[in-house]
């Protein structure tokens, strides 16, 4: 069939779109309009070391709304607040600076997992240069359309609740007590894992890493413990169905009291702002219930009329319950990803005759980087990427951009350009090692290479501390 001159002229007037983009949209049935993102936040402070980040209006290309994305994060500090504050202010910029300039769409999303690794490690290096000993967990969530990418170190957590009531964990807890793989990695890198010794040799409390006594195997900061406590994040990337979904991102104060399912179920059907408050409220109630034998006596003496607790001397029942039951900071973000055709939160309660099919979250290999050629049916979540290794050579990969237009080599972590003679490949190894490929990128500067070697136990200059 021939094309008329008028049709050709009309097409030429339209904005030019790359053929690959058009084909991709056709294969995926992609809609240009992105889902809306609604967020709610709630917190109760015991130590004042939790911080959070809410940036729902990020833009890759100024003036181009199709390049918009959202970022949410929770930072749970310990041994002070400096690391949490520094990470809140700098982590996102470090991640974005590691993404090659000029890439968009699917390519941007494919580069994001490696950029998250580089950004987390750079944040740790830069903060440790300040000479402060505090540390922090970090759970960073990037939402681009229906694609959700989560990077985390520590034990703050992100769960996904989708239509039909399926709840999926998008993070991995880096607690030595529960994570056998992390215990083995720490000891292999030169650390010692054990409980706190008290008078008489009795061991108490959770498993900790020595020196330092940290219960976590991954964090940002913590320069007073060994470098085997690494800032390399677990990263998971998924694509939601057209039904959208709800994310609950919270510090461990929430998860110590609530299961994933309990947190999700408690706030279904509520808008995001009320949902976050409901999760924190339920967390506090669970903590109170666990201490019920000690609390019933003074709770009965509370005067509802004048709002005075005669035992604790506080001015409200809420304050009384908080002072008695709260053991840790609790911070909760609830993020709803709502498709354009919907006007309400996607996480509605499941009814007996639900019009939504149950959602399936397929389990894939920890090292899976494969991408399906077609999105699963409505009501399914597609896993795009998951990797949790602490080894930078595995996380950055030889396809990570490492060469500049001026033939200088760029450090994959700190993004500093350097002459080829000063760059050290992340794949470099012992002389004559069959696995050593020093001619392949990515490259690291001398400082970042030392950081890599220390995390892998190749530098044994860790601080000493008795327990």
UniProtKB/TrEMBL annotation:
CDD domains associated with the record: PP2Cc
Q: Where is the PPM-type phosphatase domain?
A: 31-337
Tell me the domain of life: Eukaryota
Query: Which SUPFAM superfamilies does the protein's record reference?
Result: PP2C-like
Q: Name the EC number(s).
A: 3.1.3.16
InterPro entries hit by this protein: PP2C, PPM-type-like_dom_sf, PPM-type_phosphatase-like_dom
Pfam families to which the protein is assigned, alphabetical: PP2C (PF00481)
Identify which cofactors the protein needs according to its UniProt entry: Mn(2+); Mg(2+)
One example GO MF annotation? metal ion binding
This enzyme catalyses: O-phospho-L-threonyl-[protein] + H2O = L-threonyl-[protein] + phosphate; O-phospho-L-seryl-[protein] + H2O = L-seryl-[protein] + phosphate
Report keywords, A-Z.
Hydrolase, Magnesium, Manganese, Metal-binding, Protein phosphatase
Entry's family note: Belongs to the PP2C family.
What is the recorded name of this protein?
protein-serine/threonine phosphatase
Native source organism of the sequence:
Kingdonia uniflora
């Amino acid at each position: 069939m021939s094309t008329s001159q008028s049709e050709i002229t009309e097409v030429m007037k339209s904005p030019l779109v790359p053929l690959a983009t058009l084909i991709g949209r056709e294969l995926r049935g992609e809609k240009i309009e992105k889902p809306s993102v609604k967020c709610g936040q709630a917190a109760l402070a015991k130590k004042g070391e939790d911080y959070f980040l809410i940036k729902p209006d990020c833009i890759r290309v100024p003036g181009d709304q199709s390049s918009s994305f959202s970022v949410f994060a929770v930072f749970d500090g310990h041994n002070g607040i400096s690391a949490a504050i520094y990470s809140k202010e700098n982590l996102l910029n470090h991640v974005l600076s590691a993404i090659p300039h000029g890439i968009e769409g699917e390519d941007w999303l494919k580069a994001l997992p490696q950029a998250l690794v580089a950004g987390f490690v750079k944040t740790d290096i830069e903060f440790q240069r300040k000479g402060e000993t505090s540390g922090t967990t970090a759970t960073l969530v990037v939402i681009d359309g229906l694609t959700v990418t989560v990077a985390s170190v520590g034990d703050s957590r992100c769960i996904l609740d989708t239509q039909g009531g399926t709840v999926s964990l998008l993070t991995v807890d880096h607690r030595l007590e529960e994570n056998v793989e992390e215990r083995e990695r720490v000891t292999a890198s030169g650390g010692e894992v054990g409980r706190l010794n008290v008078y008489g040799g009795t061991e108490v409390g959770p498993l900790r890493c020595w020196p330092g006594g940290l219960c976590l195997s991954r964090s940002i900061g913590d320069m007073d413990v060994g470098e085997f406590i690494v800032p390399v994040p677990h990263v998971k990337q998924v694509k939601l169905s057209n039904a959208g979904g709800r994310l609950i991102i919270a510090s461990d104060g929430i998860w110590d009291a609530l299961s994933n399912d309990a947190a999700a179920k408690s706030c279904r059907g509520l808008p995001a702002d009320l949902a976050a408050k409901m999760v924190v409220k339920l967390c506090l109630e669970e903590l109170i219930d666990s201490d019920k034998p000690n609390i019933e006596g003074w709770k009965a003496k509370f005067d509802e009329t004048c709002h005075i607790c005669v035992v604790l001397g506080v001015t409200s029942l809420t304050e009384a319950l908080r002072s008695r039951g709260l053991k840790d900071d609790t911070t909760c973000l609830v993020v709803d990803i709502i498709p354009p055709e919907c006007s309400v939160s996607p996480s509605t309660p499941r009814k007996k005759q639900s019009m939504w099919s149950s959602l399936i979250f397929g389990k894939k290999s920890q090292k899976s980087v494969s991408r399906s050629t077609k999105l699963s049916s409505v009501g399914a979540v597609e896993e795009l990427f998951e990797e949790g290794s602490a080894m930078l050579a595995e996380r950055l990969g030889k396809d990570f951009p490492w060469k500049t237009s001026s033939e200088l080599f760029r450090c994959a972590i700190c993004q500093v350009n350097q002459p080829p003679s000063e760059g050290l490949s992340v794949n470099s190894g012992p002389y004559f090692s069959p696995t050593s490929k020093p001619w392949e990128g990515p490259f690291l500067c001398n400082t970042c290479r030392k950081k890599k070697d220390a995390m892998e136990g190749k530098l044994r200059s860790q601080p000493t501390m008795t327990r």
